[in-house]
Design a protein that fits this description.
With about 290 residues, the protein is of the alpha+beta class. Helices cover about 40% and strands about 20% of the residues.
């Protein structure tokens, strides 16, 4: 990646000075499905940044990401500071933020109730103060399914299950959601935590956000962590428990859809947990093929 070839829309004063120094170090970081992530450091300035390069097909607006992160920081949510944003020479969106620590290796040594409280804090934010479109209640689930379940029509078994679940859900007030809240998107420096990757941030139903996070804990960690996370969230925001099991089924279906598309990470017992979840909810999920 050639930093000089980026068309910058915004740069902070310090980052602008760093760009004139060609002596920088690049370290690849763990990346997601939507792009690549690097740590880029300037030793002369004792300054480290995180470069996120989205796939051009993601159609991300880096200035919107800048605005969302700035609003989150104003409301006290622990997120990265933005140092720059723009597009590279092939049109891929770029976001440059502070380097805020390393990912959680696992939940050991970390109190997951803290992460549940952070998620509840996000869902209590005033959605009308953010540069995000606010859908009306009648369209919330159509938009949610369209966004989080790409190419669903190519998977009839998943589509049938989704269309069986949505009419059973009682609509509620919408809130700001992260869209992919999971322990892999939280970094730390000691006991300081920072929530990363706001690519999917939008205004929608917070119960989906919670269920996705909890479902990932359920299949990748253990039941004790899973129950503590959920109970801690419900203690902060009890309304999240209404129709909650239906949202966790949506989390299961989204995971399976993404796994079919991109082979998601699997531990030794992940598939067994996936199968058990389907079998425990076979009245709705019984037709889903694993």
């Amino acid at each position: 990646m050639q930093i000089p070839n980026i068309r910058w829309l915004y740069t902070s004063e310090l980052f602008d000075r760093c760009l004139s120094d060609p002596a920088f170090l690049i370290e690849p970081l763990q990346s997601g499905l939507e792009g690549e992530v690097y740590k880029i450091s300037w030793p002369a300035f004792h300054f480290s940044t995180v470069f996120k390069v989205w796939n051009r097909s993601s159609k991300q607006d880096p200035m919107k990401q800048l605005s969302v992160l700035q609003h989150l920081r104003e409301f006290g949510v622990p997120v990265s500071e933005v140092y720059g944003c723009g597009y590279d020479d092939v049109g891929s969106p770029i976001l440059v933020t502070s380097f805020d620590g390393r990912p959680l290796a696992d939940s050991e040594g970390h109190d997951v109730s803290v992460f549940a409280k952070l998620l509840a804090q996000i869902h209590r934010l005033p959605a009308n103060r953010f540069p995000l479109e606010i859908p009306d209640k009648a369209t919330v689930f159509d938009r949610l399914i369209h966004y989080f379940f790409p190419s669903l029509s190519l998977h009839p078994d998943l589509q049938e299950a989704v269309h069986s679940i949505v009419p059973r859900i009682t609509p509620m007030d919408v809130s700001v959601i992260h869209g992919d809240f999971n322990l892999g998107n939280i970094v730390h420096q000691g006991e300081r935590y920072c929530i990363l990757d706001w690519t999917n941030a939008q205004v929608s139903d917070g119960r989906y956000d919670l269920a996705w996070a909890a479902f990932l804990i359920k299949i990748y960690m253990n039941d004790n962590v899973y129950h503590k996370f959920k109970e801690s969230y419900f203690h902060e925001r009890s309304m999240g428990s209404i129709d909650y099991p239906l949202f966790e089924m949506l989390g299961f279906l989204r995971w399976l859809l993404l796994h079919r598309m991109a082979n998601l990470p699997m531990k030794e017992d992940t598939f067994a947990k996936i199968k058990r979840f389907r079998d425990e909810n076979k009245s709705i999920l019984g037709g889903v093929v694993l």
